[in-house]
Amino acid sequence: MLFSKAMEWSSLAITEIPNPGTGEAPPGSEGLLTILKWIAWIVFGLAVAGILITAGTMMINNRRGEGGEHAGRLAWVLGGCILAASAGGVVGALV
């Protein structure tokens, strides 16, 4: 009973939120979009470099028995890659 009332109230609250539509970019925003594309290109270049550097460090330190410590670094680099790749979708979902 309580769950059905909560669903009823939530559906009323959701239907009252106005939809702003897709909107349009303001005049002169082409330069900003170009800069954002450059930033995205740089971030993906850094992501590839981060993976290669982490892999190289793991290979070098594996002989010394320290290769497992870099698995955490690789996880952080891969997490950053996932965040960078999904940035457009995340912003699109929030807006």
Share in helix: over 70%
Q: What is the H/E string?
A: HHHH
Rg measurement, Å: 22 Å
As residue ranges, the low-confidence spans are none
The count of strands amounts to 0
Q: Describe the biggest sheet? A: none
Number of helices: 4
Average predicted local confidence, pLDDT: 75
Specify the overall morphology: elongated
Find the structural class using helix and strand composition. mainly alpha
The first-to-last residue Cα distance is: 34 Å
The proportion of strand residues reads under 5%
Characterise the protein shown here.
- The chain is an all-alpha fold.
- The chain has four helices and no strands.
- It is elongated and about 60 Å long.
- 2% of the residues are buried.
- This is TrbC/VIRB2 family protein.
- Keywords: Membrane, Transmembrane, Transmembrane helix.
- The chain crosses the membrane at residues 38-62, 74-94.
Strand-helix topology:
Elements: H1 2-15, H2 30-62, H3 70-85, H4 87-94
Helix pairs in contact: 2-3
Question: What descriptive keywords fit this protein?
Answer:
mainly alpha, transmembrane, membrane, transmembrane helix
Explain briefly what this protein structure is.
The protein has 95 residues and is mainly alpha-helical. It has four helices and no strands.
